[in-house]
Amino acid sequence: GAVALSLDGYRAYHRERAISDELFKQRRQKALLELQEKYEAEQIERQIELLRRENQLKSTEIDNRRLQQRIWWLLALVFAMASVIVVNVWRGLPFFAVTVLAGLTAIPTEFYEAAEVDGAGRWGRFWYVTLPLLRPILAIVILFSTIFTFADFNIVYVLTRGGPQESTHLFATLSHALAFESMQLGKGAAVGTVIATRAAII
Known about the structure:
Elements: H1 2-70, H2 77-105, H3 109-117, H4 122-150, H5 154-159, H6 171-181, H7 185-201
């Protein structure tokens, strides 16, 4: 009788163990399915977001092409770079004009009066008084202008995208075109390294 009871208890234990293992497997399988569904849902959302961005970029590119077709001078090889230069000068002119004006107002009028007493004309006063005293200001203006133009991206990207025939590329737009449009990441990184090196030298 004791042996039968022990066998019944052993069998009951194994049945309970088997049931608990089966429940654990079912819960595990359910959890894995939920994780897989969540992962698939996230992947679908990411793909939808990527498609939406691609559509936005394509529509923007189509709009830009239509606009460029209307603006003929951005498509002409002769006038494209001139257009970029004009826009760059127009953008930087207020800052540089205010900076030079501040330097001019800082020059004491006594220097001009002394030069006039010594017989200096307008050109002499400019060459021997104004220009030497403005050299530090002009150096700062030229430095900032060089840095801004050297690392500029927006003007060329909006106006010409580096065209026509890659004639208006700057280092920043060339790096972007190589890395993200042509998917030549190595060349794009190399151009970026050149930008960083020259900026450090400047």
